[in-house]
Amino acid sequence: MSTSNMPLPVLKPNDYASDQEVRWCPGCGDYSILAQMKKTLATLQLPREKVVFVSGIGCSSRFPYYVNTYGIHSIHGRAPAIATAIKVARPDLQVWVITGDGDALSIGGNHFIHAIRRNVDINIILFNNQIYGLTKGQYSPTSPLGKVTKSSPFGSVDNPANAISLAIGCEATFVARSIDVYTSHLQYVLRRAAEHRGTSFVEVYQNCNVFNDGAYSYATDRQTKADHVLELEHGKPLIFGKNRDKGIRLNGMEPEVVELGKGITADDLMFHDEKAEEPTLAYLLSRMRYPEFPEPIGVFRDVERPIYDDRINQQLVQAREKRGPGDLNALFNSGDVWEVNE
Q: Cα separation of 340 and 97, whole Å?
């Protein structure tokens, strides 16, 4: 009997799990991100042979071993460059970059920003725990000012990098943030990233319970998170708080926290527009940080722009039409040729 017309089996989250033992510290937030990724892939029903995970160096970069897809554990900070090459050569593949705050924003800073500005059709997921975990607890590019670590015993004097602001400043076409324990929200954000055409950048606040435990407790503690987290919803006012009685409005070009009532209504607040071509308001949201403001999570920006890999492959088609398929041997033997005599 022919099997060509038989329906493909429905893939479940565990079908994307590899046979490798997952080796992160017990309680690490990476476990949650891995679980939500597998659920997302199952929701999208992506064939395993059409998915590639590329990582750099760090705790998060073990990720490709733990998913039953193609994967490359690459070199420190260079995952976006390798992912770009894969996507240009095989545009039919869905390519994910798994990176950490040190891997992406320190040694990998240039590769990170250039992949974003080119708008390569890849998905960059940055695990941000504000520490170097794999090398046992040095301060990272996102560690807060004054952070005491093994490499900053008197407190870090470095101003922390803001990954969302950096991505928006590079004209990223999709920018989002979630938190490791916000499982449903994280699935939603990952699915949105996968569906976007162009570079998708997602920052995930991830707890390192060994070297930086509780870095995001203000956003995860049940008693405080409603007052410290602002969930972005397209077309809706920026309202937050346990009683949904607080909001963000603009005072000139400065955001401010206000209480609803006493003459202030939802119509007086900022309304979120993730589709805005002008990134100014998205950038403004990225600058809202705890404790002065609730920290936004969700999709900051989702716009359409020309895609790098599409344009590269269009150039190749045009070159072949104009010059023919080419001859590598002829190329090697053309132009100036030197003959070395013994």
A: 45
Burial class for 199, CB neighbours closer than 10 Å (0-12, 13-18, 19+): buried
Q: Is 177 helix (H, G, I), strand (E, B) or coil?
A: strand
The pLDDT score that the predictor gives to residue 31 is: 98
Q: Which helix (H) or strand (E) holds 187?
A: helix 183-195
What is residue 22's DSSP assignment?
P
Query: What DSSP string describes 294-320?
Result: PEEEEEEEE-----HHHHHHHHHHHHH
Q: Which pair of tokens denotes residue 267?
A: 């119509």
Q: Residue ranges per domain, the chain?
A: 14-214+300-313
- 335 confidence band (pLDDT: 50, 70, 90): confident
Compute the distance between CA of residue 226 and CA of residue 113 in angstroms, rounded to an integer. Answer: 32
Task: Tell me the torsion sign for CA atoms 283, 167, 171, 178.
Answer: negative
Give the tokens for residue 124: 């960059």
Is the domain spanning 14-214+300-313 CATH 3.40.50.12160? The answer is no
